[in-house]
Amino acid sequence: MRKNHTLPRGVLHRIVHKSVVLEGNPLGDPTERELHVWTPPGWSATERLPLLVDLTGYWGSGMNHTNWKPGGENVPERLDRLVAEGMARAIVAFPDCFTKLYGNQYLNSAGSGRYADYVCDEIVPTVEAQFSCGGAGKRGVFGKSSGGYGAAWHGMNRSDFWSAIAINSGDMGFDALFIPTLYDDVDALRPFDYSIEKWVKHVEAKPKMKDKDRMILMDLAMGAFYDPDPTQFRNMRLPLDPRTGELIPERWNNWMKHDPVVMFDSLGENLRKLKLIYMDCGWSDQFRIHFGMRRFAKKLDAAGIAYTYEEFDDDHTEVDYRMDIFLPKLAQVLS
After folding, report:
1. Within this chain, do residues 41 and 122 fall inside the same structural domain, yes or no?
2. CA distance 66 to 238
3. Which of 220, 235, 256 is a domain's end point?
4. Which of 131, 235, 320, 327 might form a disulfide with 111, Cβ 3.0–4.6 angstroms?
């Protein structure tokens, strides 16, 4: 049941991809995964279209964005409409990067696996070879929340590979984003002797996981991405003393090194190579990400790097409608 049955319809291709990069990953996550690829209506391999890669937010994978959305549009339906409205034609890939940590930050980490390499060295070449698209100068990456973090990370670390990025409410400004919630997180651990393992196993055994449980799981998982400890349960450790709430300088510094605002100081110049840097965020983001996005924009200004940043009247939730603005920009600049 589509929202609009009258529009010309693209094709969603479902591929099974077997990864080499993820073999032996530290969480024992599967190496064989579905890869969804959308091609626009009437697509022909002779078009040599740009390639866009969708990095979903935490608790998601590419399959979330291609799944049926009752009363609304999933991303392929949105793309059908945008192309009908005049958006430049492109091919869009939806990789599955889900992990036992319940999501991904799309970097290489000893705590999760080589997911930056997975996307750049396996997923993109697979799609480009099969669909005759993309290539140098015609690749863009976009994402929201953790996916927005991934777009920022890839823009700074792999500007040799990507040519355009769109960051929608992307994780940054880690002090504003994480510190307030970490205090709540450790209070939740108290009945379990401050053991991450005991708390996680308790939550996973419940018949129903609460939204607060999901948020805590996400916060704890960041330790495995930014400061992994292979001796700990799922490589997670806290950056603060759980009893006193005092930040542990070495641990917290390891987190902050991964904050895009901090990373900019050593890697920001790479962003100058990109054809487009698009960023947006709700000005009442409940995770306070707008503060980090403003800091990132301030550094871009100081460096004289061209970008677009828009704040809109909303929070962090259900903001896929912003794709109507940035997907056409990505497709156009890469065409």
Report:
1. yes
2. 34
3. 256
4. 235
Rounded Cα distance between 258 and 331, Å, is: 28
Distances (CA, A) of 91 to 10, 60, 332: 10, 21, 12
| Number of folded domains that form the chain | 2
* Pairing verdict, β 113-114 and 108-109: antiparallel
pLDDT in tens, 239-271: 999 999 999 999 999 999 999 999 999 999 999
CA distance 92 to 96: 13
Q: Are residues 62 and 208 in the same domain?
A: no
Q: What is the CATH number of the domain that holds 132?
A: 3.40.50.1820
Q: Are 57 and 150 in contact (CB under 8 A)?
A: no
Q: In this structure, what are the phi and psi dihedrals at residue 39, rounded to the nearest 5 degrees?
A: -115, 145
pLDDT tens by residue, 10-41? 999 999 999 999 999 999 999 999 999 999 99
Please indicate, yes or no, whether residues 45 and 179 belong to a single structural domain of this protein. Answer: no
Q: What is the mean pLDDT of residues 114-131?
A: 98
Give CA–CA dist 49/335, Å, rounded.
7
- Where does a domain end: 204, 227, 256? 256
Q: C-alpha dihedral over 185, 190, 193, 198, to 10 degrees?
A: -50
Residue 94 lies in a domain: yes
pLDDT over 70 at 105, yes or no: yes
CA distance 145 to 289: 9
Beta strand 51-55 with 91-94 is parallel
Domain assignment present for residue 44? The answer is yes
Domain that holds residue 70: 11-172+260-334
Query: Which two structure tokens, joined as six digits, stand for 325?
Result: 């603005």
Residues 24 and 166 grouped into a single domain? yes
**Model confidence at 71: pLDDT above 90:** no
